[in-house]
Amino acid sequence: MASSLWLPTKQKIRSGLKQTKHFLRGDVFRFANQQETLHRHQYPHLWSQFVTSIPQRSGAKTMGANRLKNLHVAGEYIDGLILKTNQIFSFWHRVPRPTLKNGYREGPAFFNGTVTKDIGGGLCLLSTNLFNTFLLAGCEILERFNHSIDPYGDRRFFPLGRDATVFYGYKDLIVSNQQEIELQLELEIFESQGKVRSTLWGTRPNPVTLKIESSFINEKPAPSPQGMPGYQVETIRLSTFSDSVTGTDSSWHQDYRAMSTYQPCHYAYYPHHHSSTTV
Predict the structure, then answer these.
(1) pLDDT digits over 152-181, tens only?
(2) How far apart are CA 63 and CA 125, in angstroms?
(3) Helix and strand tally (H, E) in the chain?
(4) Residue 191: helix, strand or coil by DSSP?
């Protein structure tokens, strides 16, 4: 209890330290802040897109409605965001701190390897969706964290090894547009379909061809019949530049690598549903 009471104060302190770090590195002058939804036609070239299903659990209608509310609150600060060359997207620079005052509700969350509830719960679905769109577009991934556990099994809303959790003051999703092409981020929440889709559009076509590969490294058994196993997964991205004159590609090179470790847990989001090691 004492730890939870101190958490808001610790978050403020850690957030302040992160802001200082960003200032010293000059990131504050690179953060993307311009949001424009009226001139989408200026970005006609689709670079990438990713669709995420919103988990629906029987007997948890209130939590599901709260998650949707949280997604809408955060989405208002993301849809239409423009990333110019060398600009940075930071989830917590764009999205307000998850508090009741800021319009959030209590939703599902993972904390220290357990499933709990927290104000703003469910935002990790949004950060995971955005991470994959940025990854598929070839953006530079500066900061990303995977979840501590994987309680969804083969009904998870992300390819194993390609999730991105966020926790105010502690974990952020930060990416950079290193191409000399201006981009615009579009975010859509389809409540009736139970899906979230983000797309990244450019003023010119993406000059990079990409391949993303995830490799299952090992598995740790579930601690109980109702629990879920743990995994270690390696994800790499390979890229090659296309020559607009000859139409040929340069050699492939690795420009992203991440090792994601998920600890075994006693909880399954979907009861009696087993996990899959497919990546």
Answers:
(1) 888 888 998 999 999 999 999 999 999 999
(2) 14
(3) 4, 12
(4) coil
